Amino acid sequence: MSSTPTSTDYSSLSNINFTGGFPTSADLAPSIVFLVIYAFAIPLLLFRWFRRSDRTTLLIRPTIFLVCRIGMLVIRAYMSKNTYGEGLLIAELVLVSIGFLFLIEPVIGCWKLQIDSDMSQEDRPRWVKRLATLLKLTLLAAIITAIVGSSMISQALGSDYYMSVVKSLRHASSVLSFCTVVIAALAAILTSVKFSLDKRGTIFILSTAGCLIVVAVYRMVQNFTTDHDAPVNSRVAFWVLQMVFELFAFLLILGISIPTWFPGDAGRLSRNNTVSAPDVEAYQMRDGQGQPKNY
Fold first, then answer.
1. Is residue 291 part of a domain?
2. So where does this one cross the membrane (predicted)?
3. Residue 154 lies in a domain
């Protein structure tokens, strides 16, 4: 974005399209609105953690996301009305860059659990586990490049070389995150069609992934755009295409009981009595080993 802080000279950074740009007074109101929304989401997240039937390690990443977003919004609200230094700017840039990346892993995890829930171990294609692992590694690379790129801002202030490195790392992070979430969505579609998986789970995965794809596309286009006055660099684009859609994805993840929707191998029959006794017997007979077949 084209706006720059008046209190500190960061004009040398103007050729980098920072997601969200330099905070100004116009950011105060939306920062407070989103801060209130995320504050109201805390009880729901705690409820998911403390309720045994909802608890899952897949909630770790959304929890980190919530901490990142609350921290970023507090910092951004402060920066919009006060002078700030290099350290605060870097902290805000890191939190903006990595926040939404933590919402991608639950999508990958739910897709993997959907396979485990709907198919017996011997029927599962081996490429699913390999692809899930590859996507998680790619996502980790996106997080690392985003953190390193933002943390090198101080060196970039006085060096064309480091400025180029920062831009390259940011570009790499945006491309990696885009590829990860798009491939995860395509994989969910493929497995759902090919193996006739639970449609409810597929709709959830694709809805969440769809919101994250909007964010990923926005970030990638915004990072590669050279025109600082382009619409994608506007303040409205940031608050709508990133902040709103990642909020939708976050609320979708919190809105369901992940272990109930995606019980995996061990928990399918503990869906709060959603599977009837005749269903259990039918699947036991299908499996032929006295164990209900995951479907």
1. no
2. 28-47, 59-78, 90-113, 134-153, 173-191, 203-221, 236-262
3. yes
Of 282 and 110, the structure prediction assigns the larger pLDDT to 110
- Enumerate residues 6+ apart whose C-beta is below 8 A from 295: 117, 118, 119, 198, 268, 283
pLDDT, mean of residues 80-99: 87
Nearest Cα neighbor of 179 from 139, 227, 129 is 139
Give residue 38's domain range. 11-262
What pLDDT, on a 0 to 100 scale, did the predictor assign at position 11? 57
Q: What is the mean pLDDT of residues 122-133?
A: 91
- Reference 237, options 19, 35, 91; nearest CA is 19
Residue 146's Cβ-side half-sphere holds a number of Cα atoms within 13 Å equal to 28
pTM for the whole thing?
0.85
- CA–CA dist 106, 249 (Å, integer): 10
Instruction: Look up tokens 């909020």; give the residue.
Output: 247
278 part of a folded domain: no
- d(Cα 124, Cα 148) in Å, to the nearest integer? 37
* Structural domains of the chain, count: 1
**pLDDT per residue over 90-118, tens digit each?**
888 889 989 999 999 999 999 999 999 88
Upper half-sphere CA count for residue 117 (Cβ side, 13 Å):
27
Based on the number of CB atoms within 10 Å of its own CB, is 193 exposed (0-12), middle (13-18) or buried (19 or more)?
Answer: exposed
